[in-house]
Design a protein that fits this description.
The chain is built from 8 helices and 19 strands. By secondary structure, the protein is α+β, with helices and mostly antiparallel strands. Among the domains are: 84 residues, no CATH class; 184 residues, no CATH class. Strands 4, 5, 6, 7, 8, 12, 17, 18 and 19 form a 9-stranded mixed beta sheet that branches. It has a 3-stranded antiparallel beta sheet with strand order 1-2-3. The protein has a 3-stranded antiparallel beta sheet with strand order 13-14-15, with no helix packed on it. The chain is elongated, with a radius of gyration of 27 Å.
Length: 386
Amino acid sequence: MLESMKKVDKKMLTMMGVVVGIVLVIVVLILVVSLTTGGKLSYSKIEDKMVSAAKSYYKDNSGSLPEKLGETVEIDTSTLTSNGYLKELSEMAKDDAVCSGKVIVRKMKDDYDYVASLDCGDKYKTEFLADKLIKDTVTSGNGLYKLEDFVTVGNTPGIDEEGYDLSSNELMKGYVYRGQEVNNYIKLDDVLYRIVKIDGNNDFTVVTTKKKANGPYDDRYNSEIQKQYGINDYSMSRAHERLDEIYASLSKDGQIMKKLVPKNVCIGGRDAEDSSTDGSSECSKVMKNQYYSLLPLFDIMNASLSTECTTSVSKECGNYNYLIGDMNYWSMTPSNENTYTGYKITSDISSSRVVNSSNYRYAYYLSGNLIYVEGTGTESDPYIVK
């Protein structure tokens, strides 16, 4: 019995010796790595340090934060360093890189968005997704197009009753994806979306790829025809109410919620034979400071490469168009011809009574300050951002 216990103790001591040896090897490796790198950080970690420093700075200097929704301020790393909030970039950067940088702070709905921009010459430079995509615009085939290169211009919107110049709306400007096979997938909060547009402010319009909710555009009593046919005013529609519910279900700490920016969404109507694709019809009436909506019809028409997509209800708009064919859904755009029809997307675009049911394919408006991390934009390798 005693001999057996001695053998067990011997085995335990041997195992403990092995464990201690492994721990010592790990400690030595950590020390070696630390000594050889000189405590240097990855560029991504430096960006994180910059953001943390900026948050601390503005906590102590809150009066310098932007006050208006969507307004931005910038602070250089030199200011953060001289005020004791950040180490010299040269002390943190590897490869003997000479770096400069800034932190961009944008006033969001409920908080502030902090984004680091680091420039270490040919060693590293923060790459924003919008800048990366715009570098690869095309003029033929599937891809990202500059709007002004191909749109059909309509009547210029005027000034609204509050003095807002409707023609200045950034949603009428920028770049859009066109074609059937386009690499515009982006993953946010582990959910796939598609990038529809980079607008005139370099912000993103992204749209869901999955069916999540459906119903009528509206089902209220319509006094014009004295029937329960619904009213085609998006601002007071059931569709808008349903999107409010979807928005309320978003994680408060998720990427979507942290990057939402307000837009004056285009809720104006258009006739069936309207040939404009510049948004002039839809943007003649806006719903201000919205973070999400359905897609206006001009965005859906512009996604088609067909030269025969010439009116609101051209069957050819369904050709070579990634936004048509994968699901049935409501556009945001009502008909100008009455108060109870709107435009629905099936295998093409058609006019439909708004009391009918279809999916709500919702879009979010996101800050252009999305830092590219990885991905090629395909469904299996979507863009990943931070």
